[in-house]
Amino acid sequence: MSLRIGVLGGGQLGRMMALAGYPLGLSFSFFDKAADCPSAALGERFGDADYSDESLQAFIDSADVFTYEFENIPTRWVEAIAARKPVYPGVKSLAVSQNRLNEKRLFAELNIPSARYAEIRSEDDLRRAVSDLGLPLVVKTVTEGYDGKGQFLLRDAEQAAACWAALGASAPLIAEEFIQFKRELSIIAVRGQSGETKFYPLAENHHNHGILSHSIVPAPLLDENTQLTAERYISSILHELGHVGVLTLELFETRHGLLANETAPRVHNSGHWSIEGAHCSQFENHVRAVAGLPLGSTRAEKPSAMINIIGRHPASADVLRVTDAHLHLYGKTEREGRKLGHITVTADSYPELEMRISRLADALPNPMALHLSR
Amino acid sequence: MSLRIGVLGGGQLGRMMALAGYPLGLSFSFFDKAADCPSAALGERFGDADYSDESLQAFIDSADVFTYEFENIPTRWVEAIAARKPVYPGVKSLAVSQNRLNEKRLFAELNIPSARYAEIRSEDDLRRAVSDLGLPLVVKTVTEGYDGKGQFLLRDAEQAAACWAALGASAPLIAEEFIQFKRELSIIAVRGQSGETKFYPLAENHHNHGILSHSIVPAPLLDENTQLTAERYISSILHELGHVGVLTLELFETRHGLLANETAPRVHNSGHWSIEGAHCSQFENHVRAVAGLPLGSTRAEKPSAMINIIGRHPASADVLRVTDAHLHLYGKTEREGRKLGHITVTADSYPELEMRISRLADALPNPMALHLSR
Predict the structure, then answer these.
(1) Hey, what CATH class is B116-177 in?
(2) A297 and B323: CB-CB below 8 Å?
(3) Nearest by CB: A327 against B24, B313, B317
(4) A267-326 pLDDT per residue, tens
(5) A227 known ligand binder
(6) Is the Cβ pair B19, A22 closer than 8 Å?
(7) Which of A244, A251, B173, B349 could form a disulfide with A88, with the two C-beta atoms 3.0–4.6 Å apart?
(8) CA distance A334 to chain B (A)
(9) How does pLDDT run across B309-362, given as a tens digit for each residue?
């Protein structure tokens, strides 16, 4: 009844998990050293300045079952929890998503198409990758990196030295062939402790300087086969990992079909629309899975858009005046490039949705990629 | 941006206001002496054992704008707030709903039909009321009283002495003619600081021993005229009171049309369905109004049912296994007659809704009035 969930991290994802979990009678602890983190008001916070072992153990004492809202966390934290109490998703899910090479190997094992790649341990490896995979070449760190950080786009073999200078310290790296994609899609799925699995409709994602600007869900002009293919891919990953909780798979839609890009073992920015747009949100389904409860319907009755608020806050009233717009602020201070909140808007049709998005773009100090013609 | 709302009371209504308000970037203080009150985890709690003036002033210091989640609060609290900071709904709304005679006079002024009544200050007044209004007669305290408490159903003139013995100490009382109603309905409306007003669809309410068992929304088999009449009545009340926030009007549907029963200057149990069933819930619209923000749509796309969990908790999994059922627990311990939570379930049609209600009735230890045939 009064099960408590411990969340590694206290950002907006933890905050939205808690907002979804309280109605289920759950309570929350967070492990985050920032006293003003977005989740701070919604549970008990643990974690001192250097994330000492004492503070980690106190956090583990405080809750019954654990999860995380960010995959780039020290594996030792998750192992310390797993030694004493259940943690979902498990260490295997984390190990795959923390390492792009592991992820690529998993895609290959499961016959999930993905960009060709090479492991890079030297500048020579880089030159070899250019001749094997062609140009341009996307070079990334194997661990860490998100929102476009830790990446280098190699357009010319001459840039190999510059690329190595920029990223070589983080080697091994991964070099991937450059994919000419029609658009980026993502699929979010959830798997319960009993193995029950549900899929949200594919989201179409638009970026601006590497940061997600907005998502349209269900992705427009999608044939049913694409949704089913994406479900088959993510389903095989969920099953292989014995994953419990939400998992996200980012995909490229290309002329030759879907290519898997990367996974995130958690609720995802491209799924925030589900709070209003689906019967049961990704946050509620994640906490249901972690708490061992039956999953809710992932059905969407209408098109939705999720629009990120980046860097500067709009006037709340300007947002809420737009029909069926919902505002989600994370309680953060303004800073360039920072995710401060998001807006969900739903409509009865895509053209109506586009009109509402356009009105919201006018209300935002930083309209990101919203003004790009579709 | 970081506006804080102070709520008098820390029960489930305050809890659900807070859950709706955090996404809008609001934070919350509660004035409730119970350290384990349902709102405690969702904001800063004030109020010592005897609700001292010091604790009230500290509460007033802590927030920017105020509201309440229960109308039976000392008027001096609201006056103390109003002397320093804005409080919505205002003192006028509170004065009407706290006193059944004031309420009856307001209905009369605004030409809102209501049961005939008499003010009762003595046992003789009671006998006179029997001859004027007929039998049975519903005798109520003028102030306090909810969930059927503080009421006496006088079936026989002989019971006048017993009735006076039971309630006389709380005189003045009010005696109302007994209404043969087809069903009880309620309408919930919200008015913003700009005067903008929105109405939720009428709810059909079912009681069990004076406690709300469940509500069906929109009330089935309703002609449009009834909805519009109810909107006209509540609209005139909102306007007359200069009300800001949610207001509820309970009504009887009779052979001769709608009769107003009573008002509540707050979010209402019969409106809990709106969290999932309406575009913008009564809780979000209430906090939007209190925060001076534009209101959200009160539209319901499908039939919903709200089912109270009274006295004993069901197994959460049994509830969540029912398609499109959502669970809302308040963090309270079990006690006979206590509202511990509610369930919302939606469906595409009323027959499908009935089937889901019937499955939920099976999951509840105390199915209240759910097994009554409709």
Answers:
(1) alpha beta
(2) yes
(3) B24
(4) 999 999 999 999 999 999 999 999 999 999 999 999 999 999 999 999 999 999 999 999
(5) no
(6) yes
(7) A244
(8) 11
(9) 999 999 999 999 999 999 999 999 999 999 999 999 999 999 999 999 999 999
